[in-house]
Amino acid sequence: MANNPADDFETAIRPTLSVSNGVAAVEFYKKAFNAAELMRVEAPDGAIVAELSINGARFFVADKSSDDLITGRSGNVPIRMGLIVANPDAFAASAIAAGATEVYPVADQDYGYRLGHIIDPYGHHWEICRPL
Predict the structure, then answer these.
(1) Where exactly are the structural domains of the chain?
(2) CA dihedral sign of residues 103, 71, 59, 5
(3) CA nearest neighbour of 51 among 95, 94, 17, 80
(4) Among the ranges 60-64, 72-76, 105-109, which has the highest mean pLDDT value?
(5) pLDDT tens per residue, range 65-105
(6) pLDDT tens digits for range 70-81
């Protein structure tokens, strides 16, 4: 099957983070990473789906539903986000100040990245980095 998108169409992957409290998660990402909220849809029961952007990198946050069949030990759909930013040290520090847990600090890695690893309050792993 050929993939022939229109010239002005940009192919992208936009992950969805499945969380137990979407409203609180959106606020965490705003505080931790200065994320912009691009869109939010709220169900009558208060569950949400929101699209966020961190310096143009877009992703979704959604309250868990019965459709979330594949779960990790934390109860979340397992995912590791790579967040490539100009200043990973500042982004990691902001996330930790907002409530994330540091797995290892931002440092120059042998494989050519300045990278650190955090876990957000919802169990998602973030590698915050930039190429060296």
Answers:
(1) 16-63+79-131
(2) positive
(3) 17
(4) 105-109
(5) 654 444 444 555 457 788 989 999 999 999 999 999 999 99
(6) 444 455 545 778
HEC sequence for the chain: CCCCCCCCCCCCCCCEEEECCHHHHHHHHHHHHCCEEEEEEECCCCCEEEEEEECCEEEEEEECCCCCCCCCCCCCCCCEEEEECCCHHHHHHHHHHHCCEEEEEEEECCCCEEEEEEECCCCCEEEEEEEC
Residue 40 in contact with residue 48, Cβ under 8 Å? yes
Assign a CATH topology to domain 16-63+79-131. 2,3-Dihydroxybiphenyl 1,2-Dioxygenase; domain 1 (3.10.180)
pTM of the complete model:
0.71
